[in-house]
Design goal:
Layout: H1 13-18, H2 30-117
């Protein structure tokens, strides 16, 4: 995951560890510099761990989000199919009622009753 950020981060923990400073007569105390750089290296390692963990968490959440979106699409399709199926049943009942009413009008209510009983 660090490769993703390589162009944004100037130093790696290894770069800091291997850095050598020129010693001047009035230079810094080497022990203090080394102790400070050890702290900086520890922070860098922590930052890299945090970044890697966050990238993994982000990937997991994106995957879960895609899965939930697919489940939502499937649920919406299932609901649409159920509504269409329910509507077609109501429509079939309406058609049967209309057919029955037309038979009554054409054949009369007595014939329609005997026709239904057959």
């Amino acid at each position: 995951m660090i490769n993703m950020y390589q162009n944004k981060i100037n130093l790696s923990p290894q770069d800091i560890l291997e850095k050598e400073f020129k010693i001047d007569t009035r230079g810094y105390r080497l022990k203090e510099v080394d102790q400070f750089l050890d702290i900086v290296i520890g922070d860098y390692e922590q930052f890299l761990d945090i970044i890697n963990n966050l990238e993994k968490e982000k990937a997991d959440l994106l995957s879960e989000n895609m899965k939930l979106k697919q489940e939502l699409r499937n649920s919406e399709l299932n609901a649409e199919v159920a509504v269409n199926h329910a509507n077609s049943e109501v429509t079939n009942v309406d058609i049967l009622k209309r057919l029955s009413n037309l038979e009554k009008m054409v054949y009369g209510s007595k014939n329609s009753d005997t026709h239904c009983n057959n």
